Amino acid sequence: MTTFAAILALAAAAVGIGASTAHAETSGAYSSSLAFQLADINPAVVTSDGSGSVTLVGRYTNTGQNPIDNIEFRFQRGPALTTPAAVQAEVKKPSQPSQVVTGFRPLPGTLNAGASTSFAITVPVFDRTLGTTPHSSNVAPAHPDSNPVGSAVDGNPIDSLEVAKPGVYAVMMNVNATVHAGNDSARARVGELHFLVTVASVPAAAPGTGADSGTGPPGGSTPVNILWPLASTPHLGIDGVFANDELARDLTSGGRLATALDALASADDDPDLVTIVVDPMLLDELQRMADGYRVLAAPDTVQGQLRADGVISGTVPGTGQAAAAQYLDTLRSLAAIHRVLLLPYGDADLSALTRAGMTTEAAYAVTRGRDAATRVLVRGPQASDIYSNLVTNIAAPPGGVMLGETAQILAGLGDHAAILAPGGVNFANGKPVTAGLVTVKETATTYDAFQAIVTGGARATQFAQILAGAVPQDGVRALNLLAAELVTTPVNVRTPIVVVPPRQFVANGQGLAALTRLVDDLAESHTLAPTSITTLLGTGHTPGPPATLAYSMADRRAELPTQYLQRINALHQGIDALDQSLSTDKTNVGGADPQDILQPLTDALLPAASTTWRGNLDPAAKQLETVDSTLVWLYGGVQISRDTGSYTLASSTAPLLLTVKNTLPYQVSVSVSIVGGAQAGLDAKGPGLLKIGAGPRSVPVKLDTTVSRSGTFSVFAQLYAAGGTQWAGPVPLTIDSRAYGALTVILMSTAGGVLLLMVIWRLVQRARGRIDDPADALVEQRGAATPDLDSAS
Asked: What percent of the chain has pLDDT over 70?
């Protein structure tokens, strides 16, 4: 059982519709000897223009320890149940209805302990004249694999339930029999079968009817629409190679996608009831399969890097070509009848992409999805009908929640409405919206207000349970309860019903067929109205109350990991840089086109952001490894070539000569710059953008340099793509400068000038000394006495 089916079973148990039988509180030791399993209650809704009767189909089993025979049954009907609460109370604890009690009629033969037999009993609803003899049609003969039993011989018709007014009625089939315990025998009640009869309209001639007896319950019809998902996890690898062949098995009889399509094709439903929800990537994969495809010989391994010659090794032919072609033919025929709501390509996690800043990728997922769906679906004689049925302006975000920024992107792409879940939108007062139509407007963003339908509520859950078809008798009782609750719900509290199964929904053909019949019956009584999603969310209806989007922390935690998306974003940037730098060398006839590799790499990144990968830290690791290895090859094909890595500059303006080598089969446009030169006193200017023809080819590159100092220092040579992003890693260079830079020259000149001034100063000083002391001047001897002039007189 799928998780979805298990949840629905729990929900069914909560409202009392999951049990195979329901027993009232009865007395007697043998009152539970018979257990009933219902396979059908037909019709689910009785109308005045129908058969006027209800047929019960199923099996009953003797679960006691004693054989029983002389089995008889009668029907007992209670008064009309007028509210959903009354209906729920009756289902939870069935009553012993007694307002109308029919006569007993026989059931076939003897039933030993543990034995079972099938039955089909028809009971008239409106009057006695509608019944026939049990032997002819009211009671089915014993099933061939059951124990031998007798046949009914009473030729009297079954009494009617005498319903005179529309409503919901509790009915019990009371079964009595003779129980043989050893040598003793006793007549006792041995079992009960409780069910509801929902009457939408009665014939005007029925006894006790009023003037409005020919109409259904008061009020208007409630719109209903079912979203029928056709989606899968991505199977496509890179450049048309499939990672595995699981999709082929999914398309064959018994496969999940085959079952979903067959159920829709078999259902005789109103075209407005079901909306096909399709992932355009699935359509793309189906078309590739139908055209012939290849699969990795070792499924789900890492695909080898792409090659310029287009050769892909390690693959084998796929097995699903015919199945895919047939599937597409059937889908196109259904798309000409039903609306087809398109998801983003790969059902991309748009809100996660938005929060990661990858808004371009988010928008591309939407536009690429529309292009792929149109290309694949709109074909054949019904192409115009298919095209008109494509729904490209209504968003159906995963989980029914999305960011306001995501809504802004979608609004810019033409979306005017959305299908949201309870918890995904709040009223203006902050109270969560649980169901119905609302008008969403975010004051903090710039997108216009848009209409949204909020799915959910008890009715949508019951619809989903029936669609899941977990257990046949559960589905029968679910239909029985759903019809009763819908009819008894006042129209003023009803909300439009939009059923949204999970993307990976496991469909059940019987469930859809049964639900289709129920909707048809309720549509005739004006209780339900199959309504296309485009009509429901069109511009002609009354706008709903104002509301705002809600996006909780739990919603954020459910997204693809931010670190994972950052890796995808980095790969995108690497591919974009190559896209700007690589081109076909037109000088070579038949030169290789880089788009043959770059486009498949780009195409592989979008499916890696699919919501189907949620819950996995590195979901598309194998595909991303192939992208990584191919990018390593492409970037490694263009390099700065160096012999020794050491360069000598003999003067301050000596050029720096490098070589760029291209080994790729494409023309490449790159530029070269020196990184770290400023710290080393080196200023280098390259020639600008270089165009290097397809390789292997080497091109010399001259960089004009200005050196401000001498010595040995390290710098880096860096290649840049045409858009200015770095091309691979920098290449280290050792520079040996033997030139005097400007500063050195200034210092030397200054020092020489100072030395010259000192020499001149010395010479001047010497010259001055000769003038002050003539050559014939008396030279005083050191230590001689000075003559006393006074003593000479």
From this structure: 82
Q: How many CB atoms lie within 10 A of CB 467?
A: 26
Residue 768 CB partners (closer than 8 Å, separation 6+): none
**Residue 199 is inside which H or E element, if any?**
strand 184-199
The H or E element spanning position 734 is strand 726-737
Handedness of CA 305, 310, 313, 314 (dihedral sign): positive
* pLDDT tens digits, one per residue of 396-434: 999 999 999 999 999 999 999 999 999 899 998 889 998
- Across the beta sheet with 638-641, the strand order is 638-641, 656-662, 697-707, 682-685
Range in 3-17, 366-380, 714-728 with the lowest mean pLDDT: 3-17
Tokens of 7: 């949840």
- Identify the CA nearest to 394 among candidates 478, 275, 293: 275
Residue 348 is classified by DSSP as B
Residue 4 has pLDDT above 50, yes or no: no
589 Cβ contact partners less than 8 Å away, ≥ 6 residues apart: none
Give the orientation angle of helix 472-488 with respect to helix 509-524, to 10 degrees. 20
Phi first, then psi, for residue 445 (nearest 5°) are -120, 180
* DSSP codes of every residue in 372-395: HHHHHHS-STTHHHHHHHEE-SEE
What's this model's pTM, rounded to 2 decimal places? Answer: 0.80
Angle at CA of residue 77, ends 71 and 80, nearest 5°: 160
